[in-house]
Write a structure and sequence with these properties.
The protein has 1 helix and 4 strands, in the order ββαββ. With 66 residues, the chain is mostly beta strands.
């Protein structure tokens, strides 16, 4: 079993300079939810990010933040 427990996918919105609306910008992998919190907060504060998907690999859930 992998030691990854969480993943985060960050998608662009229409204000991004080099990516189209809805295009995947980053796919990050983490060990533990706490290590992901700062990256999540930074991504959500950016004006060129349209949505962030938080994936819990242990619980098999996905939360979408706009």
């Amino acid at each position: 079993m992998s030691d990854r427990t969480h993943e985060m996918k960050i998608y662009a919105n229409g204000r991004h300079k080099r990516a189209r609306d809805g295009e995947l910008l980053l796919h990050l992998r983490f060990r533990g939810e706490h290590s992901m919190q700062m990256d999540r907060d930074i991504a959500l504060a950016r004006p060129d990010v349209g949505r962030v998907e938080l994936i819990d690999l242990e619980k098999m859930t996905c939360e979408v933040l706009w």
